[in-house]
Structures are given as C-alpha cells and as structure tokens.
Amino acid sequence: MKAVCWYGTHDVRVETVPDPAILNPQDAIIRVSATAICGSDLHLYDGYIPDMEAGDILGHEFMGEVVEVGREVKTLKPGDRVVVPFTISCGRCDYCQRGLWSLCDNSNPNAWMAEALYGFSGGGYYGYSHLFGGYAGGQAEYVRVPFADAGPITVPDGLSDEQVLFLSDVFPTGYMAAEQAEIKPGDVVAIWGCGPVGQFAIRSAYLLGADEVIAIDRIPERLRMAEAGGARRLNYEDTDVVEALKELTGGRGPDACIDAVGMEAHGVGPAAWFDRAEQAVRLETDRPTALRQVIQACRKGGTVSVPGVYGGFIDKFPMGAIFSKGLTLRAGQTHVQAYLRPLLERIANGDIDPSFIVTHRLSLEEAPEAYRTFQQKEDGCIKVVLSA
Ligand code: NAD
Ligand code: ZN
C-alpha cells in the first residue's frame, strides 16, 4: 500500500510499504477514505518530537471503511464506515473507565521509556513517535486499529467524509478546550491561535454559552475565518495583546483564556527537551509567548485551558501570576472517545458543519506538497484533507 512516511525534519515521502495485518484479536483494519494533516503533525515535521524513526508512517486524523476484524471484535464488521479517534485506548483500565481516554494505561507499550527518559508519559497515539507507542499512522491506504471496540464510531452515510472526519481530533479538541475553560453564560473567552483547533474552540465556546470570543493570530485568512465564526479578532503582530484584552473587558481580562498555539510558536524547537532546558529558557526571555500572555491576560479567578501541545520545558512559567490570581489551569491530550457521540449528534442536528475548516484537498501522493503548504501557512491553507 501507499503511505506517508517520515524521514526527518521537513522530509516526508510517499512510499510503498507492506499492508497492515491483524496482530491481536481486538484489532480492525480500516481502508482509509480521508485523512487530514494536523498542527500536531507539524511538531513531527519540524523535528520537535524525539523518538521518531526513518520510515515511520504519519497521521492520526483519519476515517474509512472496516475491511477486516479480529476474532474478539464485537461492535464492528467489514463494510462499516467509521471515524477513528487519534487516542488509542483499551476502554478497560482505570483511566479509560474514568473517561480519561488519552491517558490509557494499556495503549502505550513505551510509556516506561518515556517516563525514564523524560519524566512523563501518555497513552498511545497513531503516527506520533515511539514515545507514544510507535503505532503506524493513518496517512496511508490502510491502517491497523487496536482496541477496535473502544475507539471507532460508525457514521451515517448521509454525512460526508469532510463533515465527520474531524471527530477524529480537532473538533473534540476545540470542544474539550472550551469545556475545560469552564465557560459560563455571559463569559468573554480569548483564544490564542486560529488554526483548526482554535477555529473549533471558537465555535465550541459559543455552543457552550460564551457571550463573546476574542481570537488572536496574525494570519489574515485565519482571522477572517475566526470572524466568520463570530469572534472579534486581534492581530498579535500589530497589537499589545494583553493591553487590548484588558481594554475590551473593562480592565479585568477575559474570564477564560485558551492556548491553541502550542510549542512551535516559542521558537525553541528541540531545545525544549530536558537537558537543553536552560537554553530554552534563555531564548524565551527574549520572546514573549502565547502561553505567558494567556496567563497574564486571564482575569482573577479565571480559567486557562491549554489544548496546544507542549513537550519538555517551555517558557519562564509565570507561576506567581497563577498563584496570586487564583487561576485554574487545565491541559492535556483530548479524551476523544468521550466526545464522539455527543459531537456527532451536534453535526447530525445541524448545530455545526465541521467541513468549513477545509481549505485544501489533495491526494495521498501529494502529501509532501501538502505538508509544505500547511507548515508555511501559504495560499490561505488552514486544513488539508488527503484522499487515499
Ligand atoms: P496550527 O499550526 O494550524 O495553528 C496554530 C496557530 O497559532 C497558527 O495559526 C499560528 O499563526 C498561531 N500562532 C502562532 N503564534 C501565536 C501567538 N503568539 N499568538 C497567537 N497565535 C499564534 O495548529 P492546529 O492544528 O490548530 O493545532 C494547534 C495546537 O493544538 C498545536 O500545538 C497542536 O499540536 C495542538 N493539538 C492538540 C491536541 C490535543 O489533544 N490537545 C489535538 C490536536 C492538536
Ligand atoms: Zn491532530
């Protein structure tokens, strides 16, 4: 089959590789119909995540048709059309049972290594380095889906691929970011980053009752899309963001602040990883960052929600502000499984049509060009869908 393989920083190639096979009785094999490139894939593309190996298959946002199931799979059968959450979860461990699906104790065989090397670990994710399980990703014609009864959701034929594909990640991620921001009716919410995660966070904040959303980015097309979603826009390149937010909120600051940017904006790259942390901190002092602004801007007693991905040591962390202002800080990989059904329902009943996010449609073979365009944020690119 054809698959998008990682070979190093800014080097992805479409190659012919062996088809995946059932390895475990709870596996399913999916023929991929559509797959997207995520801001999280850019961390791999930019070389920000360690423990990638040449030839690793990328991709964690995908959907398609079930073509084979292992003998213990009960809820899926060949022919089913499914969307697959990027979080691989057993469904049985204590974390899964508590609804903390992205922290599954059984899906990351390399968790011990991550713990030993970096002092933290998470669950297993598709196409996201050996640190997170070393699973082959879904930017391919076929993919093996472990724990097939605890992840994929079947989707109705009446909804197009582009309407449901983003249930795999960025719609639940934006939604959980807004939910973790503890939005109450009447709240003002500020969101840094108008990539796909930020766009879904904007719309989710309104679905959850926000009175006003203020969106921060620098890219005109992204700010325009944020405005189309009902947000007031701020360009961080020509505005003092923290001051502007104060002015817009009667001097108080927003009730909730969401960092949908992540570590790439910090300009430290791989230096953020442990033993080079000192260098990371030094670079940060010259460069005020989204994360620090988020904490500075939030009103007393407010909530900071961080869906943006961070690794290692980032920023001179303003712990004093968090403490003195009594802020609540929430972060983490999305517990996608928890949101699949409720958000599919919202799509089906017309609350939201996630296909608004798609700006570029290419074939799997065109992945190298697609990665370049999305990384450069050229040509108005906000979300790329590759059809396999
Ligand atoms: P993206 O790269 O398309 O978007 C990031 C946006 O942030 C860009 O539009 C960029 O211009 C903007 N930005 C950069 N610096 C900024 C600053 N100082 N202030 C305001 N905006 C700034 O990525 P995306 O797909 O939207 O993902 C966003 C983040 O969410 C990434 O870190 C990604 O890894 C993460 N993510 C997390 C989860 C999760 O489970 N928590 C899931 C998916 C993605
Ligand atoms: Zn993603």
Identify the notable features of this structure and list them briefly.
Rossmann fold, seven-stranded mixed beta sheet, 18 strands, Quinone Oxidoreductase, Chain A, domain 1, binds zinc ion, about 400 residues, single chain, 2 domains, globular, six-stranded parallel beta sheet, 13 helices, alpha/beta, binds nicotinamide-adenine-dinucleotide, about 20% strand
Map the helices and strands.
Layout: E1 2-8, E2 11-16, E3 28-36, H1 39-45, E4 56-57, E5 61-69, E6 81-84, E7 87-88, H2 94-97, H3 111-118, E8 124-125, E9 142-145, E10 153-154, H4 161-164, H5 170-180, E11 188-192, H6 196-207, E12 212-217, H7 220-228, E13 232-235, H8 241-248, E14 256-259, H9 277-285, H10 290-297, E15 303-306, H11 319-324, E16 328-331, H12 336-348, E17 360-363, H13 367-376, E18 384-387
Helix pairs in contact: 5-6, 5-12, 8-10
